[in-house]
Amino acid sequence: MKIRKIAIVGGGTAGWMAANHLGVELASDPDIEITVIESKEVPVIGVGEGTVPRIKETLDRFGISEVAMLANCDTTFKTGIKFSNWMSAESGHDFYYHPFSAPFPQGFDVTDHWLSQKSGPCFSTLSESYPLSEQDRCPKRKSSPPYTGAVDYAYHFNAGKFSELIAENARRRFGVVHKFATVKDVVLREDGEIASLVFSDGSSGEFDFYLDCSGFSSVLLGGALKTPFEDRSDRILTDSALVLQEPTAEDAAIHPYTTAHAHKAGWIWDIPLTNRRGLGCVYASKYMSDVEALGELSEYVGRSLSSVDVRKIPMKIGFRENFWRKNCVAFGLAQGFVEPLEATSILVTDFSANLLAKRFPRTRGDIPRLSEYCNKIVRYTWERVIDFVQLHYCISDRRDSQFWVDCTEGAKLSEELADRLDRWSIATPKSLDFFSAFDIFGVENYLYVLYGMKYSTRAISLSETEHRRAAEIVETANRHAEKLAAELMPQRVWLTELQKQLTRAGM
């Protein structure tokens, strides 16, 4: 039987991103109807406000202009993440960057040369975006084409406005139907597939294929189909977050990066938008109370937040045993979650929604073969994402609290992460260490974190000629980066001028 009617239960970023991916791939089939069913009774989490460069390609494929993105979502540019306080005070290492530009100046891997310089600058300086970040520069020139910059970049945005933008695009461009209703019950067939949905007003809807984007509740995949959740809280110990929004002045500088500031039981995120900062204190409730977490956030902000409306979000670390079961696939929080240290929520949603769209079953008979293949890929992706997030904790030299002792000396690592770290203690990471196309984080990402946190790797002996050549390459790259930073505009100025142009154009 041909699959014609597709239901997406839940809106938000996950639901509407999935709708757009399916819209792109299935647009040529007039028989297919996609319906997003959104409940007015279920609040959207709405704190996924950081992205990685992959989002530019995705938005371009959806047919969304970058100007629309910048104009409607309080958007700012992000060239990477600044990690502060992740090492002990004794290390003399206050911060490092994980930028989006590769640490290979002129295409050369100078890591072994860098390791031999015992008192040299931080590893982040190998990225051309380092001085841009330090000077709050915009990664785009005035003349830069859409989705292209002087250095690679992603975005920070208002999650609610971003959902509205991609929702409007899905409805207008791909004819996606939008229905407001709350799912009260799920009816299954004898073979275990979902037959229909029963809504709170007594009506029902029958579809051929279902996407579960219902958040942590996972109404379809976790609830009706009882797909087990694989808990990974023994590897990522943080389980709670306190969040708030802090208004900013119209002329305040805008950092082109997310700040991740560590504390004694977790870390604080600081995401700059055009009109506010999104702040969140991530912590492990086993080691820190809500009151203590609020104190950490107050200290970071610089004033008491005891009378401020701060929202608490519980975080369940892990993923569903399978993200695709029978005629149901889950995305977003319904599929899995790991704390937002590397902006992985939207990244994994984007990746897995694109995977489904490109391998969408055209008949019910296609489901068993395609689901087995896709489940293997998504599971591998989740395992490696958790590896990368845990890396930030397990290689720290902080021991100033029981949390950091348990994250380091008591860390439970996956076999793959343990093997990689052991191998990288005797040789620096190379691209050949990442044998799968589904390693979302590759050698460049690992290099920045490993050596930003002073991971100990036995340096390979280089000849004097090799050292001299590497030093020349680094010096030339640093001069180019400084020159580039001097040429580019402050991010606040660039974005303000864009808004003035849009206003004059009546947009």
Explain this structure.
This protein is an alpha+beta fold and 507 residues long. Among the domains are: 5-49 and 158-232 and 317-384, 3-Layer(bba) Sandwich (FAD/NAD(P)-binding domain); 240-314. It has helices spanning 12-26, 54-62, 66-72, 111-116, 130-134, 159-174, 219-224, 290-301, 344-358, 367-394, 402-408, 415-424, 443-452, 464-487, 491-504; strands at 5-9, 33-38, 76-78, 80-84, 95-99, 154-156, 177-180, 183-188, 194-199, 204-206, 209-212, 229-231, 240-247, 258-263, 266-272, 276-283, 311-314, 318-320, 324-325, 328-330, 336-337. The chain has a seven-stranded mixed β-sheet. The protein has a six-stranded mixed β-sheet with strand order 7-2-1-11-20-19. The longest helix has 28 residues, at 367-394. The radius of gyration is 23 Å and the shape is globular. The two termini are 46 Å apart. The mean pLDDT is 95.
Itemize the secondary structure elements and their pairings:
Layout: E1 5-9, H1 12-26, E2 33-38, H2 54-62, H3 66-72, E3 76-78, E4 80-84, E5 95-99, H4 111-116, H5 130-134, E6 154-156, H6 159-174, E7 177-180, E8 183-188, E9 194-199, E10 204-206, E11 209-212, H7 219-224, E12 229-231, E13 240-247, E14 258-263, E15 266-272, E16 276-283, H8 290-301, E17 311-314, E18 318-320, E19 324-325, E20 328-330, E21 336-337, H9 344-358, H10 367-394, H11 402-408, H12 415-424, H13 443-452, H14 464-487, H15 491-504
Parallel strand pairs: 1-2, 1-11, 2-7, 4-14, 11-20
Antiparallel strand pairs: 3-6, 4-5, 8-9, 9-10, 12-18, 13-16, 13-17, 14-15, 15-16, 18-21, 19-20
